[in-house]
Amino acid sequence: MKSEHDEIKKRLHGYLRGTLTKDAAAMVEDHLLRCDECAEDYDRKHERHLKSLLAGLPPHLHLSVVLTVYKGLSMSETAAVMGCSEGAVKANYHSAIKKLSAGMPCIASTQGIDL
Ligand SMILES: [Zn+2]
Predict the structure, then answer these.
(1) 39-65 b/e (C-beta count within 10 Å ≥ 16 → b)
(2) How far is the CA of 10 from the centre of ligand 1 (A)?
(3) Is 94 helix (H, G, I), strand (E, B) or coil?
(4) Ligand 1 center to 40 CA (angstroms)
(5) 104 C-alpha vs ligand 1 centroid, how far in Å?
(6) What CA–CA distance (Å, rounded) separates 36 from 2?
(7) Close Cβ partners of 85 (under 8 Å, ≥ 6 residues apart)
(8) Is the dihedral of CA 37, 38, 41, 42 positive or negative?
(9) Binning pLDDT at 50, 70 and 90, where does residue 71 land?
């Protein structure tokens, strides 16, 4: 007999990619709040998926995200490191977030990258 727990584990990938129906997504969200094991499993999948999406970005978009999000640099510091204007960094960053959001709906909902 399948438990709700096993059912959720199977649905985590669909949830990550935003392919679940509204009801199924609500069921997953509800379970993630109550179940530490599934929440941890989801976090691991989330991180792997994000890294694979990041790796697929064009180099200047990838770098703008790595420097601002992973290294915690400001837009002007990132511009200095990349040797371009702050406006160019902002444009790269937003373009990167847009591309990541397309493959990962949970990013679109938070408007930021969750590391
Ligand atoms: Zn669970």
Answers:
(1) eeebeeebeebbeebbeebeeebebbb
(2) 11
(3) helix
(4) 9
(5) 22
(6) 19
(7) 79
(8) negative
(9) very high
* Residue 38 neighbours by CB distance under 10 Å: 20
Query: What pLDDT does 2 receive?
Result: 66
Helix/strand/coil for 57? coil
Cα distance between residue 78 and residue 70, in whole Å: 12
Going by the DSSP 8-state scheme, the letter that residue 67 receives in this structure is: I
User: Is residue 77 within a helix (H) or strand (E), and if so which, with residue range?
Assistant: helix 75-82
Stated length of the chain: 115
Q: How far is the CA of 69 from the centre of ligand 1 (A)?
A: 30
Q: In the predicted model, is pLDDT for residue 19 greater than 80? A: yes
* Sole residue written with tokens 């204007």: 85
Structure tokens at 72: 């915690």
Give residue for tokens 């590391």: 115
* Cβ contacts of 9-12, under 8 Å, gap ≥ 24: 9/38, 9/41, 12/38, 12/41, 12/42, 12/45
